[in-house]
Amino acid sequence: MQRRTLLQAAAASASTLAAPMIKAQTLPSGPIRIVVGFPPGGGTDALARVLAQKLQAMWNVSIVIDNKAGAAGVIAADFVAKQPADGNTLLMAHINSHALAVSLQPKLGYNVERDFSPIGLVGVTPNLLICNESQPAKNVKDLIALCKQNPGRISFASAGGGSAQHLALEMFKLRAGIDALHVPYKGSGPALTDLIGGQVQYCFETMTSATPHVKGGKAIALAQTRTKRAKGHPNVPTMDEQGFPGFDATTWYGLVGPGRMNPSFVKRINEDMNKVMAMPDVIEKFEQYGAEDGGGSPERFAEFIRTETQKWARVVKEAKVQVDA
Prior knowledge:
Blueprint: H1 2-26, E1 32-36, H2 43-59, E2 63-67, H3 74-81, E3 89-94, H4 95-104, H5 112-115, E4 116-131, H6 140-149, E5 155-158, H7 164-176, E6 181-184, H8 188-197, E7 202-206, H9 207-215, E8 220-224, E9 250-258, H10 263-277, H11 280-288, H12 298-319
Parallel strand pairs: 1-2, 1-3, 5-6, 5-7
Antiparallel strand pairs: 3-9, 4-7, 4-8, 4-9
Helix pairs in contact: 2-10, 4-12, 7-12
């Protein structure tokens, strides 16, 4: 009897001691920073902050957002790729840094598959094809006719050469068989300012950036670029619905860590990310930014990155896209 009591006491003591050890094995020791490759206030930053706030409360570990803007997210990705794989530094990965740059920048300082540990897809956002009120073509069919009547003269703004918006235009040009004038800007803000002001005529722009102007009546949405309509714009038809089957040109975000991260860290962070993204208030906030269909396993996210990289590599090659490194 005495021996049984001693064994029970020992087991209870071991269990108590094991609790913090289990936490240490399945979560990085804080503080944790999530690096964002864009300035505060944009869609990538906003989604990262929603996620960080919820995970911080869930883990009781300090999580900070570290904005390292530049080169369309590549500077931040290169930084995180070179950090220790202890889980204390994560990256809000972006289509630019993890799918487009691979084909556009042959001297890229990192290898996406080798130097990162995919954790989970945060969300996928359509682009909107928009114009200002003075443009004569206000649907895709009429726009194609306009471009064919004026080859190389109808102007399309983008957030920069090699950006997701630019590549959406190149996909459109290939699929529609048209020639159009690409006008790159240093970001979505100045591109939208000139679009609304009439200096440029059309552009593909992220739903996050374009929505306030569309809702405010300063821009007109001709199409959205996922194969299903986003909940935030139920009345805007897709490119697929307007004669371009399978047209899919999105901006997407996901959480990754440096390569060779502890699998138990990856598993735990992924599980808790999925819990956060199932919360009604988080779903509501993400939908405001047009971010949908996040979640799933690390393996699903890794395969998604590979598929996107291959898709855009074909567009870059066929359209002969070149940008300054």
